[in-house]
Amino acid sequence: MAGYNYVAMNRQGKKVNGAIEAKDESDLRRQLKSQGLAVVSIKKGKGMGAKKQAGFLKNRITSYDITLVTRQMATMLESGIALLKVITILEKQADTPKLKEIFTNLKNDISQGQTLSSSLAKYPKYFDKLYINMVKAGEASGALDLVLKRLAHSKEEAEELKGKVKGAMVYPIIVISISLIIVWGLLTFVVPTFAKMFEDAGMKMPPLTQFVMNVANFMHTYWYAVVGIVGLGIFLLVRTVKTPKGKEFFDKKILKVPLMGPLMRIVAVARFTRTMSTLLSSGVPILVAFDIAAETCGNTLISKAVFVARDSIKEGNTIAQPLEASGEFPLMVTQMIEVGEESGTITEMLDKVSDFLESDIRRLLTMVVAAMEPFAIVLMAVMVGTIVIAMFLPMFDIADAVSK
Questions:
Q1: pLDDT higher than 80, residue 101
Q2: In which order are the strands placed within the sheet that holds 15-22?
Q3: d(CA 57, CA 268)
Q4: How far apart are CA 195 and CA 214, in angstroms?
Q5: How far is Cα 176 from Cα 99, in angstroms, rounded to an integer?
Q6: Angle at the Cα of 312 (from 306 to 314), degrees rounded to 5?
C-alpha cells in the first residue's frame, strides 16, 4: 500500500483535500469514486503515514477531521452505499490510529445491530450532543444522509467563523508579543549597562530613570520569580475561567468591552440561531434543540437567556418573547424569529438571521482589527519610548553640566 495526497470535487462542487492509502492510482480512484468524489489531482507522498509519524500528535483528532468524515459519510450515503460499508471505507482510510479505532468500534457496533447515534455517543469528546441528536433524528426520519449533509455544512461554517475570529487576532497578538520581548531585552541587557555607567559617574538619577533602573534590576536579579509569577497568573486565570462562576464573570465582562463585546455577543447569538436552524430542520424536538443550542452558543449570559426561553415555551409562550425580554438578543433577531413563528417558517427565518449575523461578524471583525493594529503599535511605542527616554534623561543633565 502506498500513500497518496489528493484533491477531489464532491457532489456539491466543492474541493476536498485528503490523504489516503491505496495499492495504486486506479485503486485510489475507485475508492474516491465510491465516496462520490471526482479526482482533480493526485500526488504520491506520505499519505496517512504523515500523521502517524507525528509522535504525541498521532492520536489527535481535530474538529476538521470530524467535519471531513461527516461530509464523506453524507456523500457516500447519498450515493446509495450502505451504512456499514460507509463505516468500513472510513475505517480503512482513517488518518490517525485513534480515528481508525473509533470506526472499527463503530463497525462492530453496527454489525451487532446498534444504531449509529448510540455508537457515536460513546465518544462525547469528538461527537457532541448536537451531533448525536441530529444523527438520532436522521435515523428516526430515514434521512440520515440529508441530516449528515446539514451537519457537515453547519460544522464547516462554524470552522470558517472560528478561523476568521482567530485570524483577526493574529496580527495584534504578534505585535504585542514582539513588544514584550523587546522590552524584556532592553530591561535585561541594555538598561543595566547604562545603570552601571551612571553609577560609576556618581550621577543623581531623575525619578523616571531611577524607576526604570529599579525595574530592570529586579527583573535581572529575580527573572525566575517574574517568569513564575506570570506563569502562575496565567494558570490561575485559565483555571478560574473554566469554573462556572469564573466563566460567568468573564463572559459578563467581555460583553462590556468596546468593539470586542458586541462582536462576542453576535458570535454567540449566531451560534444559537445556526444550531437551532440545523436541529429543527433535522427533526429534533424544539425543547431538546434549545438545550443543545444553549450549551453550544459559548456565552453564559446568552445560555441563561436560552434556558429561560425554553422554560417559557414549556408554559405555552412563543420563542421570541422571552428572548427579547432577556435583553441579550438584538431586537432585529427577536423580531425576525417572531415573524418566522407567525408565518410557520421559523427554520428558514433562523437561517436568514444566521446569514445576516455572520455577515455582521465579518464587518465587526474588520473594525476590531482596524482598532487593534494602531493600539498594538502605540503600546509598543510607549513601552520602548519610555525606556529610551529614561536612559537619555541623565545624558541631558551631563550635557547641561558640561556646557556650564
A1: yes
A2: 15-22, 2-9, 38-45
A3: 30
A4: 10
A5: 38
A6: 110
pTM of the model: 0.66
CA distance 266 to 272: 10
Given CA atoms 87, 89, 95, 97 in this order, what sign does their dihedral have?
A: positive
Question: Among residues 117, 124, 126, which one has the least CA distance to residue 94?
Answer: 126
Q: How far apart are CA 269 and CA 294, in angstroms?
A: 10
CA-based nearest residue to 116, from 70, 164, 67, 83: 83
Closest of 350, 339, 347, 334 to residue 302, by C-alpha:
334
The C-alpha cell at 184 is 524584556
Cell 514584550 found at: 180
* Cα(211)–Cα(176) distance, integer angstroms: 23
To the nearest whole number, what is the mean pLDDT of the chain? 82
Instruction: Provide the 8-state DSSP code for 9.
Output: E
- Reading phi first (left if > 0) and then psi (alpha if -120 to 50, else beta), residue 329 is in beta
Cα angle: 105, vertex 95, 115; to 5 degrees: 25
Ranges assigned E (strand) in 200-295: none
Mind listing the pLDDT tens digit for each residue in 244-285? 888 888 888 888 888 788 888 888 898 888 888 888 888 888
Q: How far apart are alpha carbons 376 and 176 in whole angstroms?
A: 6
Query: What does the alpha-carbon distance between residue 51 and residue 69 come to, in Å, rounded to a whole number?
Result: 16
Q: Are 378 and 176 in contact (CB under 8 A)?
A: no
| Residue range 55-88, pLDDT digits in tens | 444 567 888 888 888 888 888 888 888 899 989 9
pLDDT band of residue 47 (cuts 50, 70, 90) is: very low
Distance in angstroms (rounded) separating the CA atoms of residues 373 and 175: 8
On whether the CB atoms of residues 302 and 272 are closer than 8 A, the answer is yes
Greatest Cα pair distance in the chain: 98
